[in-house]
Prior knowledge:
Oligomer: single chain
Radius of gyration: 23 Å
Number of helices: 6
Structural class: alpha+beta
Largest sheet: 8 strands, antiparallel
Helix content: 10-25%
Amino acid sequence: MDAGEPNNAGPEDDALAVAPPRWRAAAAAEALARSGDPGGMLRDSWYFAMPSATLARGAMWPATVAGEPLLFCRAADGVAFALRDICPHRAIPLRHGKFDGNEVECCYHGWRFNRTGACTAVPSLVEGQHLNLERINCGRYPVHEAQGCVWIFVGADADGVPPPRLPDVANGKARLVLTSDFPCNVDHAVVGLMDPAHGPFVHKSWWWRTGGTAHAKAKRFGPIEQGFAMLRHRPSSNSLAYRLLGGVPETEIAFRLPGIRTEHVVAGRHEVLSLTCVTPVDAQRTVVYQILWWTPLLLTMLKPIIAGFARAFINQDRSVVVLQQEGLAHDPPLMLVNDSDTQARWYYRLKRDWARARAEGRPFVNPVPETILRWTS
């Protein structure tokens, strides 16, 4: 079997597939040995770090992304950068020190580091003592800031890995930003959020999906850069919220590694973009960011109501994930069925193939075919 996928069944199989706990443990060990991917946290990838507005000029913001201790800073000139949040002298987190808008000073011995991570001062040195500061670096991470989002690259080399680019509607200020902690591994958060069949049960409500409205669907999917998309189509007629846009809406839902989902809705001259970013903190904790942009004035007037519905929606997903942890604690075999779980299969295979391509220094080949998937929801 191939490491990175929970089973070896392909889209052509008409039965469900089971992954024994022993095999999953072996696959995880192989993945860790091959690509340094502990706990399913993909490396050599751009992760969403925060909305740009979170990081004020002259401020520090500590965070852990994919197990990496990070310190984000915005310099006096407005440029955002990220350092490894550990002083190489005595391992004190740099976040406990000071930032003057240009350099970070460690609180323990006053060692200073610039935005490249290079050490610029060791105050304890006296005349006649020599220390090659060029050899001291706390470590830095590539940061990309665009469209109101700060992205962080976790890995060895960002060359040849383009950062995410959102539809142009995201060039304006985000209308709504929500954050939720999911107490689970990143894989379960991603698979749960992309699952198309749980809607009638988890998200049943008068304002989104009412009871008894589930019906068979067929959607065309195709590969995109580092992921796949449900190609542009008319949204389901049992989604009442879409009617607020007016006109006949069309939507495209795209997923890109490591955990970036966009839903871009166009209705006449109006647009709505929903960005969901699943960012792992460590092997058992994940942060889910939900950011929305829109052009209709009506939606701006209804923002407090929309925010309440959006929080309720993501909390429904979070509640199910919390319940899932009770069962996962016993390390049971897990099942995937066709076609509703095919996106989950693609996700695991994309992760596997991306890690292998990066480890072997070769171009990544997207394994997702263009196909039609069918399910009831």
